[in-house]
């Protein structure tokens, strides 16, 4: 019975492991490629671009606004109207009237009225508006793409940084255990105080706590990355960055102009909408036509002996709608929107230049800081190594040894954070320069 239970447990665990998907990434490029195919926000943006292109096509067709109104009717006059005519017309007594009925009982009619606009200035202006809106949708999609990729890069490099920090803590954990063992042996020999042992043990626990905290932050960053890439939350995410950190001092320039392009296009949209509205005060000239076919009979619908006739005409029609007070208010609103869009475009251009310069300065600051902290880490490691040697000789106190150890640990962690940050900033600059 026990063997059967163990077998069933193994089968259930096997099904569970098969049901849990695993997604692995070895570089930021792989993550971005995955997001490009699966991120819902990018799919939505692409649909909006497709819709804007379709709207441009429809506006071109509506420039002539071709339309054909077709009507058909079949009327059975169950009782024809009665009219009274002077009887003397029919040879009757003057001064009297005779009842007569005019018309046909069965009347069938088909009417076709085609119309096409020859001069439609508002429709021509809408073509320009639709084209600008299409360019605006494309630029907005690129901006959404850039912002999403920056968010993904932030989460990805946070994960890489945390993983490497955990590796550093794990490597130093063995050192703290060794120090704890040395102090414990000295305490047993009466060469160290209980307080020293407590301090060494507390240092071990502090590193364990740091690892635990970083592990929790790592899970949070994993969830952020899953959300950005539309990866199911139950999917196991494996990230093992195999690329070297870009720590060399390279001069990078930031040339992204998407924000100013978007603002400029939005300004053009506002101006064009105002032009389109002003054109609505102009009349529209249309070519119209009409063709009518009518079948009249007292015997039935479409009788072979029925009376039929046709009529048609062709001409020009001029349509003009007198503006009311609401149109002038709408015109004022459009003028205000255009003025606001103009000021926003100026502000966003300045903001974009500042952001580009700020990103460039952040990168240069990180590279300079890495060079200095690399030297600091080397000095802190050397100090700790020498202090550990002389501690065995009882030439320094445990306090000084612990201080040098923590300084070394913090220097290694800080150096790793800076190195990963340089890789992140390099990726961010590349995204800004390539997504244009």
Automatic annotation (TrEMBL):
Q: Which Pfam families match?
A: OEP
Q: Which residues form the signal peptide?
A: 1-19
Q: Which GO terms describe its molecular function?
A: efflux transmembrane transporter activity; porin activity
What Gene3D superfamilies does UniProt report for this protein, alphabetically? Answer: Outer membrane efflux proteins (OEP)
One GO CC term of this entry?
cell outer membrane
UniProt-annotated location(s): Cell outer membrane
Q: Which residues form a coiled coil?
A: 340-369
What keyword terms does UniProt attach to this protein?
Cell outer membrane, Coiled coil, Membrane, Signal, Transmembrane, Transmembrane beta strand, Transport
Instruction: Tell me the protein family, please.
Output: Belongs to the outer membrane factor (OMF) (TC 1.B.17) family.
In Swiss-Prot or TrEMBL terms, this protein is called TolC family protein
């Amino acid at each position: 019975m026990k063997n059967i239970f163990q077998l069933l447990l193994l089968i259930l665990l096997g099904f569970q492991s098969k049901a849990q998907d695993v997604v692995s990434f070895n570089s930021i490029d792989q993550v971005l490629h995955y997001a490009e195919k699966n991120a819902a926000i990018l799919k939505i943006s692409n649909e909006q671009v497709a819709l804007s292109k379709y709207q441009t096509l429809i506006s071109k067709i509506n420039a002539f606004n071709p339309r054909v109104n077709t009507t058909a009717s079949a009327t059975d006059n169950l009782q024809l109207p009665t009219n009274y005519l002077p009887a003397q017309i029919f040879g009757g007594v003057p001064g009297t009237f005779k009842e007569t009925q005019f018309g046909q009982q069965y009347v069938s009619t088909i009417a076709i009225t085609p119309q096409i606009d020859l001069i439609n200035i508002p429709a021509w202006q809408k073509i320009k508006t639709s084209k600008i809106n299409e360019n605006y949708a494309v630029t907005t999609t690129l901006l959404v793409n850039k912002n999403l990729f920056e968010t993904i890069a932030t989460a990805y490099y946070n994960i890489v940084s945390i993983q490497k920090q955990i590796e550093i803590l794990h490597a130093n954990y063995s050192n703290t255990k060794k120090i704890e063992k040395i102090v414990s042996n000295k305490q047993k020999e009466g060469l160290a105080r209980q307080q020293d042992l407590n301090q060494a043990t507390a240092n071990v626990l502090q590193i364990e706590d740091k690892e635990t905290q970083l592990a929790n932050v790592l899970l949070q960053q994993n969830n952020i990355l899953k959300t950005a890439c539309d990866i199911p939350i139950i999917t196991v995410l494996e990230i093992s960055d195999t690329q070297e950190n870009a720590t060399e001092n390279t001069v990078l320039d930031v040339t992204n102009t998407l924000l100013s392009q978007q603002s400029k296009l939005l300004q053009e949209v506002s101006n064009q909408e105002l032009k389109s509205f002003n054109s609505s005060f102009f009349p529209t000239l249309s070519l119209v036509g009409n063709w009518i076919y009518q079948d009249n009979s007292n015997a039935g619908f479409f009788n072979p002996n029925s009376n039929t006739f046709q009529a048609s005409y062709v001409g020009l029609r001029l349509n003009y709608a007198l503006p009311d007070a609401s149109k002038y208010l709408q015109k004022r609103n459009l003028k205000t929107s255009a003025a606001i869009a103009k000021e926003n475009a100026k502000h966003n251009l300045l903001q974009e230049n500042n952001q580009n310069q700020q990103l460039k300065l952040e990168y240069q600051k990180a590279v300079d800081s890495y060079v200095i902290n690399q030297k600091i880490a080397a000095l802190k490691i050397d100090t700790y190594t020498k202090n550990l040697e002389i501690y065995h000789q009882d030439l320094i106190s445990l306090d000084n040894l612990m201080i040098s150890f923590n300084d070394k640990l913090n220097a290694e962690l800080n150096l790793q954070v800076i190195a990963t940050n340089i890789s992140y900033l390099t990726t961010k600059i590349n995204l800004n320069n390539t997504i244009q």
